[in-house]
Amino acid sequence: MTFLTGSSAVAQEKGVMDLYADFIRYRQRGQNGDQAWRGLSDDLQHLSQREVMRLMSLIRVWEATDGCAYKPFPCSPLRPLASSEDDSATPRVIRRITPISARPSLPHTSLVQPFFETPSADPQRVIRPIVKTTSTFSDDMVLYFHVAGYAEPIRIRPYHAPMIIGRYAPESSVMPDINLEPYGAAQCGMSRLHAELCRQGSALVISDMNSVNHTYVNGEALSLKETRVLKDGDDLRFGTLVVRVQFGTEKNA
Hints:
- This protein is α+β, with helices and mostly antiparallel strands.
- It has five helices and 14 strands.
- The model is unreliable at 1-11, 83-91 and 99-131 (pLDDT under 50).
């Protein structure tokens, strides 16, 4: 942010708490979380990765408590908090899908099983599926996201710190931990910061980050404050993007 003093311009970088306050003001003016985050994009470039994570943590707590009282206005334009001389650039917004059309569940036989029958590109790595449906996720396990319509799954090593599931956009300064943009996420109505995945003890849990088109587990929408334990074989839906969850282990052959 730049302040003019006489003929000179003095740049003042906003800190975490300044941007946190700006985010809340954006939300209170009727913008959704995705729009409010974009409103901070210029100032986010001055923060370190640790500061960005702290800001996101503060925002998640606010959204889970006070934020639920501020419902975004449909198609609300992104208005800057301060006056700007250049209003020519119109930010891209997530289209609300009304109604959210149900997409068929992923058949276990046609998507998941062939992946394990296909020889691995790495001959030293053998992927062993978990046979029995379970919600237990141990240290030697890996997580696979099987996206509907794509043969190769996404391999994920979950950690205890929150992992953001979303989509990257060129105008955004934050890259989600699990980026589904290459899988048609924007067309499916997925938000940049859509859901949060985290390990809690021997379980994997998922929660919605106040996304525009919601997060579903086995066809059931998550409420704003809800945290759901994932099980091997669960179907997730982000907007209309369908993902099957699979737990697996890796051992050297």
